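Consider the tokenized backbone below.
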């Protein structure tokens, strides 16, 4: 399975010199559009030299800059696909043998690939962010991913106070911004086709200093530019619809990690809640 450029960056950024790391961070902040510019424009945006950009591209495994841009163009085309276009795409339909086996295999591959590019340190850092926040935790998702946000919120609310799932209309979310600040964490689920209302909301929250944890796909929601932590899960399956199964497993993994992190306090809260039933 071919890795996206965002996944390659995640795998290799720890070995990059400072200049190449700046190039990587600049690309992720406006993914993938910065990489579709000329080398000179990319280097100017990153504040590094053109040779640094070319070394960065080579470190990702590309022979030259046009090959790197071709891969980004393919990703952009995939990012912009709709369920209608995937329905018309023969590659999106199982080729015999029934629908179950290809779907199951693709889903399992998505889980394996998602965790292959997700380090133990990254998971631990996100768990710490969620467990040790000094304020509140807010969770929200898009049209098809909001059930994941609601599920995660329901669990986190049992083991720690001040956990809120943001539901309803966009105006209701905006009203909650008044309660958000630098002590708070906002968890957002957003996969292709990315939801503009969530992007606007994330930008406003970022301006208020809120720490954002983003669950997205391998092509990266525009919210990535505002996020402190980005989980890029695999979502493509042989269907007109993307699958959130890998992101669901990551969410459950983090729920378990936060529960262990809170230990005695979480256990005491669970006992107190049970006594009220």
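A designed sequence for it:
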């Amino acid at each position: 399975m071919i890795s996206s450029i965002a996944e390659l960056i995640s795998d290799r950024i720890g070995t990059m010199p400072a200049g190449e790391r700046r190039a990587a961070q600049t690309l992720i902040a406006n993914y993938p559009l910065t990489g579709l510019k000329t080398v000179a424009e990319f280097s100017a945006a990153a504040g590094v030299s053109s040779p640094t950009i070319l070394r960065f591209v080579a470190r990702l495994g590309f022979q030259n800059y046009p090959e790197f841009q071709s891969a980004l163009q393919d990703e952009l085309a995939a990012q912009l696909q709709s369920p209608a276009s995937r329905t018309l795409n023969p590659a999106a339909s199982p080729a015999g043998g029934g629908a179950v086996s290809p779907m199951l295999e693709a889903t399992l591959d998505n889980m394996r690939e998602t965790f292959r590019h997700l380090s133990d340190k990254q998971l631990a850092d996100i768990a710490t962010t969620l467990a040790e926040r000094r304020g509140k935790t807010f969770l929200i998702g898009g049209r098809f991913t909001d059930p994941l946000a609601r599920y995660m919120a329901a669990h986190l609310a049992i083991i720690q106070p001040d956990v809120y799932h943001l539901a309803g209309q966009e105006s209701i979310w905006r009203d909650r911004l008044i309660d958000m600040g630098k002590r708070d964490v906002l968890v957002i689920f957003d996969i292709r086709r990315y939801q503009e209302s969530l992007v606007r909301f994330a930008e406003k929250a970022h301006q208020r200093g809120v720490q954002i944890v983003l669950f997205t796909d391998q092509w990266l929601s525009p919210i990535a530019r505002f996020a402190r932590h980005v989980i890029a899960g695999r979502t493509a399956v042989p269907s007109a619809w993307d699958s959130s199964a890998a992101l669901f497993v990551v969410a459950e993994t983090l729920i378990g990690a936060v529960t262990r992190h809170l230990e005695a306090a979480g256990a005491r809260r669970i006992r107190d809640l049970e006594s009220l039933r």
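Confidence is low (pLDDT under 50) at residues 90-96.
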